[in-house]
Amino acid sequence: MRIQVMKFGGSSFASDEHFHRVASYIQGRVAEGNKVALVVSGLPGATEALRAKCLSINPEPSGETIDCLIPLADTIGAAYCRAALERQRVKVTTLYFSQLGLLTDSNYSRARIQEFDPTPLRTALETHDVVVVPGGQARNAQGQQMWMGKNSSDLSAVAVAAALGVKDCEIYSDVCGVYSSDPNQISGTQLVPEISYDAAIDMSLSGAKVIHHGSVRYAKRHGVEIVCRLNQDDFRVGTRIGEKGAPAVLVLDQRSVVLEFAAQAEQERAVAALSAIEVPFVDMARPGESRLAVTCGFFDVERFLRENNLQPRTLDRYLASEFRRDGSVSRHLPEKSTAQAFSQQLHDQLYSQRGHLGSAA
Ligand SMILES: Nc1ncnc2c1ncn2[C@@H]1O[C@H](COP(=O)(O)OP(=O)(O)O)[C@@H](O)[C@H]1O
Ligand SMILES: N[C@@H](CC(=O)OP(=O)(O)O)C(=O)O
After folding, report:
1. Where are the alpha helices (DSSP H) in the chain?
2. Would you identify the family this protein belongs to, as annotated (predicted)?
3. Ligand 1 pocket: which of 7, 152, 155, 175 to mutate (most atoms within 8 A of CB)
4. ipTM
């Protein structure tokens, strides 16, 4: 059985027409004799719409409530995708969190994978050509739905590939791959054809939305290559995330929350508390300045720190990180109002000399 693992993100499903194009592309893969494990995430904005509605009903819902709710966005995306495949007469089924064999711990909204039994996937693939898996969700030992965190559909896809022993995991998005900076923020960006796991993890932890850091870590650990591809037109390959490639990149994290503490000791306590629950952040402490930037967004960090008796000031700044080819990194905290122009300038400087992508290009 030749199995391919693909993940289509929310940006793939902007309209009905997009569903049809994706479905006919997948049908083409099936026609070539492949079986497809297809991870699907929520429609654009769906996850945050669910969260916002819930918070308007109760600003402090329990973790259990959030984990029961948030992955529904991906479940709906998966159902629409399945409907589009059925229209193409593809033999398709779905494995929901309770059926998938993906077992996590019970840390709400950041559940970690403990075990992945590939039997349900293999069995389903024997009788169907495509098995749809809603992203980001799993079950704990008690059988409850668990959420693996923001943008964790990428992690679901890599975990599916690892469990099935498939060495490539294809992740489709509205950009064909990893660029030297977010092409929707910065002009003149360059496509990075190859990037190492470690460089991609650094980018992601600094707030680059293009790939989920947990998924790259998991891919590295299990020897899965992530192949980034465009989710429309020719579905071309843009970037391979694997063993090689150290490009120069600029990451402006417009979801970052920059915090300032009254004293260094307070900041150190915050660093310990955030590290304990594996929230991505960058320590920006300098002599006389106790700051840190929580990256990747959507985590209510102020509330979490309040619960830990810490009350930092939230600054009107974002984190911008500059990774150079020589391995050096510079971090900046520009004011929100000028962050974009500032980052454009940094990117222009990084790419002012030809050949910055060097051997990575
Ligand atoms: N360095 C980068 N290279 C490419 N895309 C980036 C980069 N940094 C951020 N992005 C953003 O990541 C987006 C794709 O991620 P996402 O919106 O999560 O897609 P999907 O919904 O397909 O998972 C792109 O539209 C782009 O704006
Ligand atoms: N529910 C997920 C959906 C997801 O992972 O989205 P995407 O594939 O667009 O990153 C989230 O937003 O966290």
Report:
1. 16-31, 46-57, 63-69, 72-87, 119-127, 153-164, 197-205, 213-222, 264-276, 301-307, 336-350
2. Belongs to the aspartokinase family.
3. 175
4. 0.94
